[in-house]
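Task 17 of the worksheet. Students: predict the tertiary structure of the chain below and write it out as structure tokens. Keep your answer in the requested format; marks are given for formatting as well as content.
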Amino acid sequence: MLKADGRVIMVSGASRGIGRAVAENLLAAGFRVSAGMRKPDALPSHENLMSARYDAEDAASVEAWVVATKEKMGAIDGIVNAAGMSLKVRITDPGEDDLDAMWRVNVKGPLRLVRAAFPHLAVSGCGRVVNLGSLAGKRVGTNVGYSMSKFAVVAMTHGVRREGRDAGIRATVICTGYVATDMTAAETGIERQDMSQPEDVAELVRTVLCLPNNASVSELWVNCQFDPMF
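Model answer:
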């Protein structure tokens, strides 16, 4: 297992939900964290924490965040793409605005961060990319638009695995079911306490980040309830 040893991990969507749980978990484990969020003052200060503005829909903010992280922390050893959104889009729904918004945030945002950080991850020799996907990215339910974006995240993760392998970059997509975050606040089909908790998903993220190059996990499926497809 790789140790934290001050490794620098960039975490998007770190102000709340899974992203925040990941940032807090990694800090407690001894990592140095560069937290990207729309409101950089959302997290309490910590000696190993750098907060920066990140907006998945703003390509310039991605580049600026990567540059600032390298300048302040000296390296980039991993990225965790936790920022995301869910809007209901069915095949027969008119218009494309909601679908376009999910594509920008759920797909293009993570892709831009991977591209910008790729040279630094390659220098690390054990660069890591962890994308927060969804079981909706493995099968389609009632929200086909969200599933389309998460299927794309799965595909992107495998692309990173291929292109980064020789440089020691390993990528994992963690596909969750219901997680007790703001995104599932309106869900009435399952009780909040029965959903997976952000802190538990964060433990899985840290585990993946610590796996050596010869123990790569491409996909990790996590569900809080029985699903006959998984």
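Marker's comment: The first strand starts at residue 8 and ends at 12. The chain has a mean pLDDT of 96.
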